[in-house]
Amino acid sequence: MKANSKFLQLIERIQEGHVMTREECEFLLGFDEKSLEAGITRSVADSLSRELFNNKGLVFGQIGVEIAPCPGKCKFCSFSEDFTSFQSFSMDDEALYNAADNFTASGELFALALMVMHHTPFERTLDVIRKVRARIPAKTQIVANLGDFSRTQAEELKAVGANGAYHVWRLGEGSDTQFPASQRLATIDNIKAAGLDLYYCCEPIGPEHTPTQMAEIIMKGLDYECFQHGAMRRVPLPASPLGKYGQITESRLAQITAVVTLVAIHSPQICSIGVHEPNKLGLMSGANAIYAETGANPRDTESETLGHRGLDIEACKRMYTECGFDI
Ligand code: SF4
Ligand 1 centroid vs 47 CA: distance in angstroms? Predict the structure, then answer.
């Protein structure tokens, strides 16, 4: 069995430092997940990633602080008011501190992401970050995960203790969501202008998404010099309009994670590659960042994702150990 010669040439050039173009990204995504080319893509991404990141796996934590039926109505999100089964819930200070303490007690957490809803009042978001910043070790990064915000608000997030923000121009933005791409990208501009680290991702990937669509999203992360890139598959929620499309396999997610890795690997700003949700195939294909989660999770239908879809830190560490990483 012989691999495609154009593919082999490209892989060799990437190993020598070539920064991929959008067309090349699309080309790599076009191979079948079971192909020899996909296998080589995953293997090379794994090798380059371990070399760049010194074989270090990073553990992130995410706390879902707020739940509400969301008027954003994104077709892939379990909070969409069109089909959610969630009641509104706001984590009180005691629960917030307990969750933050549980994540940071061992000193192994690289960053803690704090997730609120798109329409959570901004003052509440600032209050949550301020309280957690005062509670957890200074070395632990705080990542804000919220809706769109202005340049001034980005600076306020930073002022109260956020180090970075998770924000994404998503697949299907404007059609599977009500948000124009310009609005999402303006927020990413604001993150960068305020000097916050940009946590980015190609998401939420479903079986209907084409290599062309994914390549466009992936390359945007590179354009914006993201701090973390990654890939996340969509969880098919039976009640959502996208549930009928089903889900990509972990094998396809691993291939896409590998392509993301090869796109991002030569960017001076890149510090980690995420795979969501955590899985070993992704960690063997270039990813070195996985998230433990507690509280609400937009891919879950349980208000406490820990013990359901969400993993705890020990489970993340076991996954890294099984994949030969140092933590
Ligand atoms: S993804 Fe965000 S904006 Fe969209 S429905 Fe979910 S919480 Fe609302």
Answer: 36
